[in-house]
Specification:
Largest sheet: 5 strands, antiparallel
Helix content: 25-40%
Oligomer: single chain
Distance between the termini: 68 Å
Number of helices: 16
Radius of gyration: 34 Å
Shape: elongated
Strand content: 25-35%
C-alpha cells in the first residue's frame, strides 16, 4: 500500500538563521526581517526574541528597542530554495520518491513515499524516529504526518505545525475522518486563495467537514469549479502525481553564520551540520567522497575584499561517515588561521566515488588482510588522520615502481596522490631478497685481492643476482636526479660483526665494489 510521509518545516527562514548556533548560543535573540529596505518588518523570531517582546509584524526599529542585542537577518528566498533542494537530496536515503514543497505564503517541507521503505527501516515508527533525530542533527525542527495520499499527509503535518492535535491516517477511511476535523484555515495548503477562505468563514464554516457537508454543485457555481480540487486530491478521489526529485551530481551546501567567527575552530559546529547533510546525500546515492572542500567566506563589505579561505580534506578511501569526517576536519582546523572573520561556511564535493560498506567481523583479521575492514584499514585511518593534522606535503607513503634498478624501484608519494590513482596492479616482486634499509646512493667499498671489506673482510652469503636495466633513459634527468643504466652483480654479504649487507660489483670498468643497503 502506498504511504506518504510529509515533513513540514515551520518558520524555515528562522531555522536557517539559527541552525549555525550551538546550544549555548540559542539564548541569543534572532529575528528574520522582510519587506522594503526602508521599513523592514519582523517576519519571524526565536523564543529569546519573543521573551523580550518581539513579535512578527513588528517594525525592526521597535524590535531593536525591545531587544538591544537582537540579531536581525534579511530573509533570503533563494537561500530557502537551496536549503529545500539540499534537504530533498538528503532525504533520498529514506525514500526513492521525494518531492520538495515551497508554497507561496505557506509552510515549506518535503513529501516522501515511504510505503516501500518501511521493511528496510523497521516500520513507520522507527523511520519517523530516525527522521526526527537526523533532522535535529542538521539543525531543523519538523512536524511529520503520514497518510495514504501526499496531500493528506501534508495537511496533517501542517496542522501539527500550527498547534492542532491530529493523528496519522493509515487508511482512506481514517483520512476522511481526520480531514473533516481540521480547521478551515488549513485550506490554504489545499490551494484556496485568501479571499475564498474568508468568504467561506463568513458563511459560518469552521472546519473542512463543514465544507464537505454543503452541496457541492452550488458551492462550485459560486466559488468556481476548482473549489474542491485540492480537497479531492487529499482524500484520494482524484489522482495527485508528485514530480520526482532528481538529486544533483555534486554536493554543494552552505550555512550563513549569524555572528562573525574569528577562530577557525569555531567553524566545527556549522561544519558538523554540513557533514551530516553530506552523509545523507551520499547514502542516497550509495557513494562516498575522497575530496571535500570547505570554504569560509568573509564579509564583502571590507575595503579590500578577502577571498574565501579554503580548507581541503583528502582521504585515501571513499568515506561518508559524518563523525569520522568531523574528526579529520577538527585535526585540519588546528592548522588554519582566518585572515578575516567568517560570515558563511560552504561545503563542496565535486566527485562522488563508489562506496563499499565495511562489515565488522567477530574474528580478528588475518595477518595478510590489508583491505577494507582488515588490519590495513586501521593504518589507513591513521594515515588519513596524520594527513589532516600535518598536511599533504608532510605525509608520504612508499609506492612500488616497475623498475629493476633498486634506487628507482620505489618512490614516496603523498597520501592523496595514492588515493587518486586507485588500485592498480603492483609490480612483480623480485625473486631475491631486498634490504629494509637502502642507502640514498651506493657507497664505495675497499677491496683487497678481489675481496670487499666493511668493518672487516666480507663473506659472500648468496649471489650473484645480475641486474642490467635502465638503458631506455640513459643520462636523462628525472625528478632532479640523473637516471642511468646499471650493470651490476648483487650479493648478500656478512661482515665479522655479523651484519648482513647488500653489496654489488660493477660489471663495467673499473669493476669496483659498492655497499647499497643493510638487512634488519
Amino acid at each position: 500500500m502506498s504511504l506518504w510521509l510529509a515533513v513540514a518545516l515551520p518558520a524555515l527562514p528562522l531555522q536557517l538563521a539559527t541552525r549555525a548556533l550551538d546550544t549555548l548560543a540559542q539564548s541569543m535573540p534572532v529575528a528574520v526581517v522582510d519587506g522594503p529596505a526602508q521599513r523592514p518588518l519582523v517576519a519571524c523570531c526565536n523564543a529569546a526574541a519573543q521573551a523580550a517582546g518581539v513579535a512578527p509584524g513588528l517594525k525592526l526599529a521597535a524590535a531593536q528597542a525591545l531587544a538591544q542585542d537582537l540579531v536581525a537577518l534579511r530573509r533570503n528566498p533563494a537561500h530557502e530554495g537551496e536549503a529545500l533542494q539540499e534537504l530533498a537530496a538528503w532525504a533520498c536515503q529514506f525514500s526513492a520518491q521525494v518531492t520538495p514543497l515551497d508554497e507561496p505564503g505557506g509552510t515549506q517541507g518535503l513529501l516522501l513515499e515511504i510505503g516501500g521503505s518501511l521493511s528496510l527501516f523497521g516500520g513507520r515508527h522507527r523511520l519517523t524516529q530516525l527522521l526526527r533525530r537526523d533532522l535535529a542533527q542538521l539543525g531543523y525542527h519538523a512536524e511529520l504526518g503520514a497518510a495514504p495520499t501526499p496531500r493528506g499527509a501534508w495537511l496533517i503535518a501542517v496542522a501539527r505545525s500550527r498547534g492542532t492535535q491530529v493523528a496519522d491516517a493509515l487508511s482512506t477511511t481514517e483520512l476522511a475522518a481526520t480531514l473533516k476535523r481540521l480547521p478551515l484555515p488549513l485550506a490554504q495548503a489545499l490551494g484556496l486563495d485568501e479571499a475564498t477562505r474568508h468568504a467561506l468563514q463568513s458563511l459560518g464554516l469552521r472546519r473542512l467537514g463543514d465544507l464537505l457537508a454543503l452541496p457541492r454543485a452550488e458551492l462550485q457555481q459560486r466559488f468556481g469549479p476548482r473549489l474542491f480540487d485540492g480537497l479531492d486530491r487529499a482524500l484520494g478521489r482524484k489522482p495527485d502525481p508528485q514530480p520526482p526529485f532528481e538529486p544533483p551530481a555534486q554536493f554543494v551546501a552552505g550555512i550563513e553564520l549569524p555572528a562573525d567567527l574569528t577562530d577557525a575552530e569555531q567553524l566545527m559546529f556549522p561544519a558538523r551540520r554540513l557533514l551530516a547533510s553530506l552523509e545523507g546525500f551520499l547514502r542516497g546515492r550509495n557513494a562516498g567522497a575522497t575530496e571535500l572542500l570547505f570554504s569560509a567566506h568573509h564579509s564583502p563589505r571590507r575595503t579590500l575584499p578577502t577571498p574565501p579561505t579554503e580548507i581541503a580534506l583528502k582521504l585515501a578511501a571513499p568515506e561518508r561517515d559524518a563523525q569520522r569526517l568531523a574528526r579529520l576536519l577538527a585535526e585540519r582546523l588546528t592548522r588554519v588561521q582566518l585572515p578575516e572573520p567568517a560570515i558563511a561556511l560552504r561545503l563542496t564535493v565535486e566527485r562522488l566515488q563508489p562506496f563499499a560498506a565495511v562489515n565488522n567481523s567477530l574474528l580478528p583479521p588475518a595477518p595478510d588482510e590489508t583491505g577494507p575492514g582488515g588490519a590495513g584499514h586501521d593504518w589507513l585511518q591513521l594515515a588519513e588522520t596524520l594527513h589532516a593534522r600535518l598536511g599533504s606535503e608532510r605525509v608520504f607513503q612508499l609506492q612500488a615502481v616497475d623498475d629493476h634498478r633498486p634506487e628507482h624501484a620505489s618512490r614516496a608519494v603523498p597520501l592523496a596522490v595514492r588515493a587518486q590513482q586507485g588500485t592498480a596492479l603492483p609490480p612483480a616482486r623480485p625473486a631475491a631478497p631486498r634490504p629494509l634499509l637502502l642507502l640514498p646512493a651506493p657507497r664505495p667499498l675497499r677491496a683487497t685481492a678481489e675481496q670487499p671489506s666493511y668493518d672487516g673482510p666480507l663473506t659472500l652469503v648468496t649471489g650473484p643476482e645480475r641486474i642490467e636495466a635502465g638503458w631506455w633513459d640513459f643520462d636523462s634527468p628525472a625528478a632532479g636526479k640523473p637516471r642511468q643504466a646499471v650493470h651490476r652483480d648483487y650479493f648478500v654479504a656478512r661482515n665479522p660483526q655479523g651484519q648482513l649487507l647488500w653489496i654489488f660489483r660493477e660489471l663495467t670498468a673499473p669493476r669496483g665494489w659498492f655497499l647499497h643497503g643493510f638487512f634488519a
